[in-house]
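wait is this the right file?? whatever heres the structure
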């Protein structure tokens, strides 16, 4: 196996990152007025409370209604503009851009999109995204992972085994497992997708966390992924990850169907 020059985050640091992400509300990090306003407006836009072309409310009116300063609103609008969701022009104010211009790969936009009722189309698109990234990254990881990285992956796998019957506690090492594979590619651009995969994975976990089977049924395929990376078998990793994603999508679809049945 080739040595990679990219640094690999350790299991403890990735676990801390996973805990922080899993415990925060949908959208940007909590704890600030800016984040709360950003989350409120972003969710409103994604849910269709403002249609493309609609102006955002006048800053003075919004400030009075929500008790926030114009400075906070300007900062929020800049962030939303960076995500492709709004544009500000002289005389016409700030308006909502067409959905085709939004950056749906932005973790906040992705989280806002999946914060409400989930459709079968939503699930399909989420897993198409994962299939487009993870199997190819896994094949590269098999070529480039160092012995130290393989050992770290095995340690994460042991944590997954420990909590395989506890969906909530299983989610953390599972997130670490999939993120680690991206970073094991040694490709900094692919490694940077870890934040995107983090959001997609946590959305998957949120959709399927009431699975009565837990996640022990997924362990053979996770072990197959890890063993093929250790053996340098890129095609084996790719096939195992595709099968793993197929099973995960089916879990999510079953969970959504069960929830709908409970509310009928």
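ok assuming it is, sequence goes like this
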């Amino acid at each position: 196996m080739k040595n990679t020059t990219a640094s690999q985050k350790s299991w403890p640091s990735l676990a801390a990152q996973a805990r922080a992400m899993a415990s925060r509300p949908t959208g940007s990090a909590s704890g600030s007025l800016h984040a709360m306003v950003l989350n409120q407006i972003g969710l409103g836009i994604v849910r269709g409370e403002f249609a493309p072309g609609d102006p955002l409310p006048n800053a003075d009116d919004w400030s009075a209604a929500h008790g926030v300063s114009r400075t906070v609103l300007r900062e929020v609008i800049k962030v939303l503009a960076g995500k492709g969701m709004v544009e500000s022009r002289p005389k016409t104010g700030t308006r909502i851009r067409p959905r085709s211009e939004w950056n749906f790969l932005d973790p906040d936009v992705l989280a806002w999109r999946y914060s409400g009722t989930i459709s079968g189309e939503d699930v399909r698109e989420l897993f198409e995204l994962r299939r487009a990234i993870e199997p190819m990254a896994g094949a590269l990881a098999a070529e480039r992972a160092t012995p130290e990285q393989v050992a770290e992956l095995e340690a994460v796998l042991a944590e997954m085994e420990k909590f395989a019957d506890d969906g909530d506690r299983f989610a953390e090492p599972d997130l670490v497992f999939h993120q680690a594979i991206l970073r094991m590619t040694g490709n900094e651009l692919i490694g940077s997708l870890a934040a995107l995969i983090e959001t997609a994975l946590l959305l998957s976990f949120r959709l399927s966390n009431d699975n009565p089977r837990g996640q022990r049924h997924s362990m053979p395929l996770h072990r197959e992924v890890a063993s093929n990376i250790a053996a340098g078998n890129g095609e084996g990793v790719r096939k195992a990850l595709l099968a793993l994603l197929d099973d995960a999508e089916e879990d999510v679809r079953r969970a959504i169907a069960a929830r709908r049945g409970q509310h009928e």
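The longest helix spans residues 234-263. so i think its the right one actually
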